[in-house]
Design brief:
The chain folds into two domains: about 1-145, Heat Shock Protein 90 (2-Layer Sandwich); about 145-225, Actin, Chain A, domain 4 (Alpha-Beta Complex), CATH 3.90.640. The protein has five helices and ten strands. The chain has helices spanning about 1-20, 55-85, 145-150, 155-170, 215, and strands spanning about 25, 30-40, 45-55, 95-105, 110-120, 125-135, 140, 180-185, 190-195, 205-210.
């Protein structure tokens, strides 16, 4: 009974945190945020989505498509969980959210950072991850790591890895690869984002390392300085 109570309390806290996330914004006029809420009483799950709407239809459609695909994947997981438990549904319920966490928008770039969190009823704990979209308004395409950063040597890569690890500043946590690293662009800094379990134990939670553009400016492609 005590174990069930602990899981129940953890789930309430998890859902509350997801839905109370605040958008930290530096934005131009013309971007609004739509939200979608779904509550399925029969299967005991709730979904909360935030979807940005800008003047760039191509960008809006691509992001919305991915958000809805992730939502559908969560519902499939709930259905599979019910099936594996012979039709039994956990009284605790399940929860999924996609919350817009940061927005940066100027004349050249739009950068979004989302936190995706999910909990499947009856499991030990939820799981969260970051999802970022950096978009070049002039070129009309997404900006990947090699577009935004220009690392000329191994020394440059080592410098950036060291800077990220130093900014995280947690015992035993070290970033040792830039491969598939997630980042989003802010007004004066770059945020490097790490999911649950990506570089540390679950207890460390989601990890962000925000580094001033002045500190790593020489590593940024001249087109984006």
């Amino acid at each position: 009974m005590k174990k069930l109570l602990i899981i129940f309390i953890s789930t309430i806290c998890f859902a509350f945190t997801c839905k109370k996330a605040i958008v930290d914004s530096y934005i131009q006029k013309g971007i609004k945020i739509d939200s979608i809420k779904i509550a399925d009483k029969k299967r005991r799950f709730e979904i909360f989505l935030t979807i940005p709407v800008s003047k760039i239809k191509k960008l809006d459609l691509l992001i919305k498509k991915e958000i809805l695909e992730d939502k559908a994947a969560f519902i499939n997981m709930v259905n599979e969980n019910i099936k594996e438990n012979n039709g039994k549904i956990s009284f605790i319920g399940s929860d999924y959210s996609c919350v817009l966490n940061h927005i940066f928008d100027n004349k050249f770039i739009i950068s979004y950072n989302f936190i995706n969190s999910q909990y499947i009823g009856g499991t030990a704990h939820g799981i969260s991850r970051f999802k970022s979209y950096n978009y070049d308004l002039k070129k009309g395409k997404f900006i990947n790591f090699n577009d935004y950063f220009h690392l000329k040597s191994d020394a440059d890569s080592t410098y950036l890895l060291s800077a990220i690890t130093k900014r995280i500043n947690r015992k035993g946590v070290e970033v040792n690869t830039l491969e598939r690293i997630k980042f989003n662009i802010l007004k004066d800094s770059i945020s490097f984002n790490f999911d649950n379990y990506e570089i540390a134990s679950y207890s460390e939670g989601l990890i962000q390392a925000k580094i001033s553009k002045n500190e790593i400016g020489r590593l940024i492609n001249s087109n984006y300085r």
